[in-house]
Amino acid sequence: MKTLKQKGASASSLIAFVLIVGVLYLLYHNFSGGQFGGSPQQPAKPRLVEPRGDLSSTEKSVIELFNTSKASVAYIFTESVQGQLFFRRVSEGAGSGFIWDDKGHIVTNAHVVRGANKIRVQLDDSDPLPARLVGIAPSYDLAVVQLLDKPKSALRPIPVGTSHDLQVGQSVFAIGNPFGLSKTLTSGIVSALGRTLPVDNGREIPNVIQTDAAINPGNSGGPLLDSAGRLIGVNTAILSGSGSSAGVGFAIPVDLVNKVVPQLIERGALPRPGIGIAVADESLAMRLGVRGVAVMGVEPGSPAEKAGLVPFDLQNGRLGDIIIAVNRHPVANSGQLSSELEKAGVGATVKLLVIHGDETREVEIQVVDLDG
């Protein structure tokens, strides 16, 4: 009996071992792609590629526009140092720009380079090159920097177009450095024309172009191009609750850029047209109940004094003059007054419509350069 029991246990162990091996084989065969009672599956192969044919004429033209224009676009990197010694803080910024001429002048936004201690410019085929600030016009959010080192290849100034003849609906293209992603092309249309864009000093940039081409942080200062690859604007701002593109971008019109940039290169700043008055800020004007530009001071020897403008004297309760129009264009604040004087230009004679108490009169006055 003892011997028989040992033989039976051995047989049972052998059967169990065979069953385990069989189960393991079946599991392996199943998970490795085999099939019960059939041949193994064929290995997976890539799908056949469908021929697409030629690119459309529109695609070809956009590709050509980008390849032609990208060498004229610049990518701008800035460093600003604040504080002193152990409390110094270095902040970095990035923006876009474009080559203006073969002397290394690069146009960008004023807010891209304002306050920067170090400016570097990267062109299409170069490492970042050092640059210096040549001129800045905060009233138009425009600035010019110049390369300090000569790039390896010849500079390719961007072709300049016009903005006065733009039409809503025509195609536009933006090339820039959004979020630090250089050589980024976006496209859209002219969404609206004749917009005004407020700037930090209370003035407004006139005739701004509105576009739905995607413009994001880092696009500032880059070119807005028409379908011929010509510069029609400088991308400068977006209207967005999130700070990213919402399809409402704004560009400074090239007709204005083409007037401002040569003066920045030549003088470093723009003439500051004026008539020699100090005006009430908006809060004081509201307290006075004034709709227009209240004259609060007149500079001795200025055109305003020669024309007989009278300032308010709040201490003695004496009324002054309120300017309500320039050359028959209404002005409601100092920004609009400055815009009208700039439109007329230094040396021009303008007609002011002035209210003093219950009287209204017209005054002829010469526009001068307040910084000249």
Automatic annotation (TrEMBL):
Translocase recorded as keyword: no
TM segment ranges: 12-31
Pfam families for this protein: PDZ_2, Trypsin_2
SUPFAM superfamilies attached to this UniProt entry: PDZ domain-like, Trypsin-like serine proteases
Record keywords, A-Z: Hydrolase, Membrane, Protease, Transmembrane, Transmembrane helix
PROSITE patterns: PDZ
Domain PDZ: 259-358
Cross-referenced Gene3D superfamilies: 2.30.42.10, 2.40.10.120
N-terminal signal peptide: none
Keyword Transmembrane helix assigned: yes
Protein name: 2-alkenal reductase
